[in-house]
Amino acid sequence: MLLTRYQTALSTCWAMDGHLLPASLTLSTLLELPRENMFGLLETLPVGESPTGAEVAPIEPGHEVWAAGVTYLRSRDARRVESTVADMYNHVYEAARPELFFKSLGWRVAGSGMPIRIRRDSRWNVPEPELVLVINRQREIVGYCAGNDVSSRDIEGENPLYLPQAKVYNGSCALGRGILLCEPEEIIDVPIRLKIRRADETVFAGETTTETMKRTLAELVEYLTCELDFPHGVFLMTGTCLVPGNDFTLQPEDLVSIQVGALKIENPVMG
After folding, report:
1. 117-142 pLDDT, tens digit each
2. What are the domain boundaries of the chain?
3. Which of 59, 75, 77, 257 is most buried, most CB within 10 Å of its CB?
């Protein structure tokens, strides 16, 4: 089942597999339920016609997006290159406890087709394509979407304590195209692809799979929800291993395309 969100002239609404759900239904309502109850409710809800509004990010304003870092070997190596304290990332990669940080509130998140941004006070900015887990109140994985954890590598590399400024700013987070609802065991060996176009030319293209992730999805969820409640559910970016070379930085008017499984988002870049 694919959940998508739309903006109409009067409000936002959700659709399932291309058909409108009741206007009163919210994602928070769904994520407050245990996984089986949520699936059961969706199977019994009446569905309407196809939506006519503009599709927007599959998240509601009050939802939180968190992120995990250094979950792939390639990510560790890239962080070591950019950082003045490279050994720290070795410790994070090998440690039992993963790196976790807050990324965005739902109202700041861009959907497919909406612009992402690069910081004006940064010289080295990159997209980070990621599998994004959708987790309910009961700490269960109920599905996933595609995500872009836009990052300023020079700011983070200057000092690890600058991580919030490198990761959290206007236009630094995109999610889409919808939420693919599924059982956790179906989220295995998910392909991830990244393409960046500049003036009708592909300047970067790469692909990988979640099979190369060092940590398990269950492990990341366990640490995120340890001592921290999410009564309306939460989104968790799971890290990246597709990192453009050290001589690459995003520029205004670039077009970033990310595909995670069957879900694809495209975002133009603004300065």
Report:
1. 999 999 999 999 999 999 999 999 99
2. 2-56, 64-270
3. 59
Torsion of CA 210, 270, 176, 263, to 10 degrees: -60
| DSSP-assigned beta bridge partners for residue 132 | 145, 237
Q: Which of 269, 258, 250 is nearest to 148 (CA)?
A: 258
**Would you state the structure tokens that stand for residue 35, as one six-digit string?**
């996984």
DSSP per residue, 146-167: EEEE-EEHHHHHH-GGGHHHHH
Burial of 156 from C-beta contacts in 10 A (0-12 / 13-18 / 19+): buried
Do 193 and 258 contact (CB within 8 A), yes or no?
yes
User: Among 116, 99, 113, which Cα is nearest to 236's?
Assistant: 99
CATH topology for the 64-270 domain:
Fumarylacetoacetate hydrolase; domain 2 (3.90.850)
* Residue from 126, 149, 159 nearest 243 by CA: 126
19 has which bridge partners? 16
Residue linked to tokens 């196809």: 50
pLDDT tens-digit map of 60-84: 999 999 999 988 865 545 555 555 5
